[in-house]
Design goal:
The complex is a heterodimer of chains A (164) and B (753). By secondary structure, chain A is of the alpha+beta class. Chain A has a five-stranded mixed sheet with strand order 2-1-5-3-4, sandwiched between helices. With 753 residues, chain B is an alpha+beta fold. The longest helix of chain B is centred in the C-terminal third of the chain and has 28 residues. The chains are: A alpha+beta (164), B alpha+beta (753). Chains A and B meet through α2, α3, α4 and α5 of A and α1 and α18 of B.
Chain lengths: 164, 753
């Protein structure tokens, strides 16, 4: 076992410090050290997207980011998407559209979708399908996921219009 | 009749009960378990596809400071080489045990040979690489036709062919040969105006659930074993652990965590007995999770297959005779889905003269396991493609051909039973009337080749045992305790059936999936049985509660129970000319104590499932790549309890079918090593590979269920392979017979390479 490294970061708006081995991935740190188990391991080589988190404004597969790379970053995980006000509209639309079956890929899809709608508030179906191609779902055939994300975009835009 | 009933809850689309946990990351899956003092287990797997294990030396690995325990097959109890009943299936115990940890031979690359428990997962990984195994490398056999040759390498010296057909000289790798026949095959083919005969092959493929297998075991000093895990059936895991570890079932508690997909692949146990054995030896909790590569190399794939179909029809399009030979890869141990494939191959049609031969063949690949309508997609790929070719040669519309030959109530299925009320022709008629079929397809826009394909599919659907307990709370909401793992929304579909009986809303029911100590025996979530069979258990438990509440109300009003009526969630009676009424919640409040209804049901009468699919696609003649343009899936679901989740089953099945047809397949080198054991190289469809999928739910109520439910989860994977192959064949003008239809195969068929 190599010497552990001290890392200072921010996760879901809270300042966090942890110790990790240099070889530990961010996903291992989140799940095994910090017990934030919402991000899932499906492949451990960046192909399925079940471990998707936001690092700054980038979406990353946390299984191929090292824990030590979190130093000084702002990390957002599925656990930080709902607030004390309630569910995020994307989460609400996933429920309304039955956009999940087993649910193992759902955290990754919701985090990816949030990043999409922050960068492109009015995506076409093609945009949504292209953006989410890094997240594998084996249950739904993606149809209801795409519908949920499109509908969430609409809901978020209505929210913005109402606040204007 | 069920179709005349008006429903309050059934057919609506409430939010699923476990939804919030699953969109917030709070839902606890098997790998989310953590104990402060737990150890981590890791498996050493055979690097060879076929090898005799001469010796295993664990001395170096044992000296690793973090290692607490190492086990090999010597640590498993000796089990008899005998066939035994296990839950709802029949298995050979020796094979089951040898697949957990190889004893004399390693039969596939990835076959477990030893396992280690250590204080951290990295140390466990280091330690397995310090175990020294002396192998005698043997020649592997990787193709079923090669495995059937008399001089093929033999996997099991003791295996004898079980044969129901005529005896033939075959290699010992043929585990069984079954034959089904009726009518006069020769006369049937003699009466045909057209006969088409073709060979088909499908690759070994994987269920591809996103969550890998996991197990955490703990063994207490009093001899009680607890296993937390991802499984389609906690009781099935308990049964298998009991047989493999030779422990009484009552000493084992299996806790089913949330499950990240299964599709048939999470019924068989792999690392669960290993985690249990390591926990028993160390008296510490032991956690194990598989890597994705271990899942591909060490867990049940769906069998690859070779199928020959010969079909005759007269010039009016009537089928006169059908013959099929199905050869399925069992993998390392006997037991492929060839039996089910043989039942399904011609099942949508009324055929008077037929013969179906099925061969179960062992070879040096992982033991095959169930995958969504096991065997039927392979089988119907072959039969539905031959039907399409006959339609082309007769210049007949493929929908019309199916209307002429389609089976209906009273017809005899190919393997014997007479069909009860079924909805096959209703799916074909719905396809004919659908806007998709009405709209013609432009065959060559901009030099691209387009084609349309149609295919149908059949799956038996299952019943079997399920248990449900309902507790009524004083506030009138109810806990519904069940043993069916919820893979795709069954908490909702089961709760909604209880709500319908009790006149409650879906939100008034709080369903809980519990461990094997806390509910009666319940079969696996598989066989398209859960909404049907556990649904019936829930209906029966709710009826029991309703009867108890009528008793409470009768007491309260000082009437006889027979004076009390129940309608739309309200108890009603007349007393001395006065109209009395109480709501469910009011009765719960006056009951003065808990009301509990517990039921075990074992219903037969699972209605058969049929589906008909239409697909339009485009072939890029330069690259050979196929793009799906439009997909319409029509399915008889009997009655959709929660239509969104019924549609979800169909959409998911279609997506898996697109993968099976176009891009998925195990690739092997000559040594029998899988060369694409990752999600990068084993290509499952992404959102960008698929169009929207339109689902049409046809409802021909199943007389075997109070609300008409038929299983819906498996049949949607049956038609896509043939529908897509038919469309590609019509687009390029060459009959495609090998899956997957990868770009290189398409170009080769077109003569471009």
């Amino acid at each position: 076992m190599s010497k552990k490294t001290h890392v200072q970061t921010e996760i879901n708006g809270e300042g966090i410090e942890f110790l990790c081995e240099p070889r530990q991935s961010l996903l291992e740190v989140l799940r095994d050290e910090l017990h934030l188990t919402g991000a899932k391991e499906g492949c451990n080589n960046g192909n399925c997207g079940a471990c998707t988190v936001l690092m700054g404004d980038r979406i990353v597969n946390s299984c191929i980011v090292l824990g030590v790379e979190a130093e000084g970053e702002k990390i957002e995980t599925i656990e930080g998407i709902a607030t004390s006000e309630g569910l995020h509209p994307i989460q609400q639309k996933f429920l309304e559209h039955a956009a999940l079956q087993c649910g193992i890929c759902t955290p990754g899809f919701i985090v990816s979708s949030k990043a999409l709608l922050e960068q492109n508030p009015t995506p076409s179906e093609e945009d949504v399908r292209f953006w989410l191609a890094g997240n594998l779902c084996r249950c739904t055939g993606y149809h209801k996921i795409v519908e949920a994300v499109m509908d969430a975009a609409k809901a978020l835009n209505t929210e913005v219009a109402d606040n204007a | 009749m069920p179709e005349d009933k008006e429903f309050k809850v059934i057919g609506t689309r409430p939010i699923r009960h476990d939804g919030i946990d699953k969109v917030t990351g709070r839902a606890a899956y098997g790998a989310d378990i953590h104990f402060p003092d737990m150890l981590h287990g890791k498996v050493l797997r055979s690097p060879y596809a076929h090898a005799r294990i001469k010796s295993i030396d664990i001395s170096k690995a044992s000296s690793h400071p973090a290692v607490k325990c190492i086990i090999t097959s010597d640590d498993l109890p000796l089990v008899e080489d005998t066939i035994t009943e296990l839950g709802e299936t029949v298995i050979n115990l020796k094979y089951l045990s040898d697949n957990i940890l190889a004893s004399d031979k390693a039969l596939y690359k990835g076959h477990p040979v030893a396992a280690v428990a250590a204080t951290d997962p990295y140390a466990a990984e280091e330690a397995i690489n310090m175990i020294e195994v002396d192998y005698e490398i043997l020649e592997p056999v990787l193709d079923v036709r090669q495995a059937m040759e008399p001089d093929a390498p033999v996997l099991h010296e003791s295996l004898k062919t079980e044969s129901m057909g005529k005896g033939e000289d075959q290699s010992q790798n043929v585990a069984s040969h079954s034959q089904r026949k009726h009518g006069d095959l020769e006369a049937g083919f003699a009466a045909a105006d057209i006969i088409v005969e073709r060979d088909f092959s499908t690759a070994t493929i994987h269920q591809g659930y996103i969550e890998t297998h996991n197990a955490t075991a703990q063994y207490n000093e009093d001899g009680e074993l607890t296993v937390w895990c991802s499984t389609q059936g906690a009781f099935g895991v308990r049964d298998q652990l009991s047989k493999i570890l030779k422990m009484p079932v009552s000493k084992i508690k299996v806790v089913p965590m949330e499950i990240g997909g299964g599709f048939g692949g999470k019924v068989q146990v792999y690392i669960k007995p290993i985690a249990a054995l390591l926990a028993m030896k160390t008296r510490k909790p032991v956690k194990m999770t598989m890597t994705r590569t271990e899942v591909f190399e060490g867990t049940g794939p769906a069998p690859g297959s070779y199928i020959r179909v010969k079909l005759g029809a007269d010039k009016t399009g009537k089928i006169t005779a059908a013959e099929a030979h199905l050869i399925f890869e069992a993998g390392a141990y006997p037991g492929s889905a060839v039996g089910a494939g043989s039942l399904c191959i011609f099942a949508p049609y009324k055929i008077d003269n037929l013969q179906i031969d099925g061969y179960d063949v062992v070879l040096n690949k992982p033991k095959s396991s169930a995958y969504r309508a096991p065997g039927a997609p392979n089988a119907c790929f072959a039969s539905e493609c031959v039907i399409d070719e006959i339609c082309q040669k007769l210049d007949m519309d493929p929908i019309k051909f199916r209307l002429i030959n389609g089976a209906k109530e009273g017809d005899r299925r190919c393997d014997g039973p007479i069909y009860p009320k079924i909805g096959y022709l209703e799916t074909v008629e719905a396809a004919q009337q659908h806007g998709h079929y009405a709209e013609s397809i432009d065959k060559t826009p901009n030099g691209k080749l387009r084609g349309r394909g149609v295919a149908s599919g059949f799956w038996m659907n299952g019943g079997g045992r399920s248990s449900v307990t309902i507790n009524v709370n004083a506030d009138g909401r109810i806990n519904l305790i069940e043993g069916s793992t919820d893979i795709g929304g069954t908490r909702a579909s089961i709760a909604m059936q209880a709500a319908e009986v009790l006149g409650l809303s879906s939100e008034d029911i709080m369903p809980a999936v519990v461990d094997t100590d806390s509910v009666g025996y319940t079969g696996v979530t598989g066989g398209s049985r859960t909404t049907f069979a556990t649904g019936i258990a829930a209906i029966n438990a709710a009826e029991n509660i309703r009867a108890q509440m009528i008793g409470v109300v009768a007491n309260h009003w000082e009437l006889k129970p027979s004076d009390v009526k129940f309608k739309d969630g309200t108890f009603l009676a007349q007393k001395n000319g006065e109209e009395l009424q109480m709501t469910f919640k009011e009765v719960a409040a006056v009951a003065g104590g808990p009301l509990v209804g517990s039921v075990t049901a074992s219903p037969g009468g699972a209605g058969n499932g049929f589906a008909t699919h239409i697909v339009d696609l485009e072939v890029d003649s330069e690259t050979g790549k196929v793009d799906i343009l439009r997909y319409t899936a029509i399915q008889d679901v009997g009655r959709a309890i929660h239509p969104s989740y019924a549609e979800g089953q169909v959409e998911g099945g279609v997506a898996q079918g697109v993968g099976w047809a176009l891009s998925e397949g195990y690739l092997y080198n000559d040594e029998g090593h899988m060369t694409n054991a990752s999600f990068l190289d084993y290509r499952m469809p992404t959102s960008y590979d698929l169009p929207s999928i339109e689902t049409v739910l046809v409802e021909v109520p199943n007389p075997g269920h109070p609300y008409g439910v038929r299983g819906a989860g498996e049949v949607p994977l049956v038609p896509p392979l043939a529908a897509i192959a038919n469309a590609v064949s019509r687009a390029i003008g060459v009959r495609m017979t090998e899956l997957p239809m990868s770009p290189d195969r398409v170009l080769e068929a077109m003569g471009s390479i």
